[in-house]
Inverse folding.
């Protein structure tokens, strides 16, 4: 089979590897679509593991099942979680499944930017979800990023009627807009430097979207007429976005950090303005637990959230380098898919 092996953002090689052999409890899946995540192009995060086959937003078709697998059969359309928690440790019981040590130990073999993947037994048991016939392969590839968004909003305690500001309206930010709208929050505002993405955020339900160069705090005050911003979601690694979030959030509000910043980055923390008497909560979210993936699938199946219009570009496996370049340097683009 062919795989796209990552050495760096500008060095991704198409190589021929053996098709993985499945063992007891395992499944072989033919990859039909795999999204390029923003974390896939973070070299400080990915290069220490290189060479590696990346790709964790996976939809595909079961082609072989190992001994003991009874809930799946060849031909099943599925979404595959790249890794799953154990479900039985203190972290999992506390609702922090994505910090479970087991989650970082197991992963699909070799990765979603390949023609076939072997799904280990733990993922086969807890991390494979049937893709309904009414959903496309592209829909399936969006389940994992939507699950991550739903988990983040759950940890930020997003509720109907709350005012929300999304800073950074790339794919993750736009999914936050869609998910917040489906939940019944409002009004929803956006901050985004790219004009194309500002327009997309407006189309997807944001009341207003501003450039970071605008007087965002003043514009929010005018729109809210004395009400305060209750939730701020930061979907960009720009330190200036973190500082803007601190200035936007109101008393008793919550800031959700949904994107990492480069290692060693520091951001001034206006301690008294945020905490002393104002009771602002800062929280973060990483990944999606199996329950979040199932909820994402349900919302897509029921039509409560639509994601197809977020997919703007599709590439063959041999063109993964072009796909990475487009994610690194967006050009009127949103979600980029690889379709082996």
């Amino acid at each position: 089979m062919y795989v796209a092996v990552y050495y760096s953002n500008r060095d991704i090689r198409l190589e021929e590897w053996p098709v993985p052999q499945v063992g007891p409890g395992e499944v072989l899946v033919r990859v039909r679509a795999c999204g390029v995540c923003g974390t896939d192009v973070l070299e400080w995060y990915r290069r220490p593991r290189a060479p590696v086959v990346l790709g964790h937003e996976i939809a595909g078709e079961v082609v072989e099942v190992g001994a003991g697998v009874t809930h799946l059969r060849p031909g099943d359309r599925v979404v595959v979680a790249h890794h799953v928690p154990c479900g039985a440790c203190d972290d999992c019981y506390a609702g922090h499944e994505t910090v479970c040590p087991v989650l970082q130990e197991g992963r699909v073999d070799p990765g979603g930017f390949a023609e076939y993947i072997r799904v280990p037994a733990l993922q086969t048991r807890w991390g494979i979800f049937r893709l309904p016939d009414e959903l496309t392969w592209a829909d399936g590839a969006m389940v994992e990023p939507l699950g991550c968004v739903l988990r983040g909003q759950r940890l930020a305690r997003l509720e109907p009627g709350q005012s929300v500001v999304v800073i950074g309206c790339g794919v993750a930010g736009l999914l936050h807009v869609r998910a917040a709208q489906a939940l019944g929050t409002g009004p929803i505002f956006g901050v985004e430097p790219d004009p194309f993405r500002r327009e997309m955020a407006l189309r997807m339900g944001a009341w207003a979207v501003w450039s970071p160069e605008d007087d965002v705090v003043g514009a929010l005050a005018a729109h809210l007429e004395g009400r305060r911003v209750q939730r701020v979601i930061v979907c960009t690694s720009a330190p200036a976005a973190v500082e803007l979030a601190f200035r936007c959030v109101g008393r008793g509000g919550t800031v959700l950090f949904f994107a990492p910043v480069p290692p060693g980055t520091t951001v001034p923390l206006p301690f008294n303005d945020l905490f002393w008497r104002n009771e602002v909560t800062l929280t973060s979210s990483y990944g999606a637990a199996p329950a979040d993936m199932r909820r994402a699938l349900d919302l897509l199946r029921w039509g409560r959230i639509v994601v197809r219009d977020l997919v703007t570009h599709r590439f063959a496996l041999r063109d993964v380098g072009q796909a990475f370049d487009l994610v690194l340097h967006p050009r009127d683009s949103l979600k980029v898919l690889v379709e082996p």
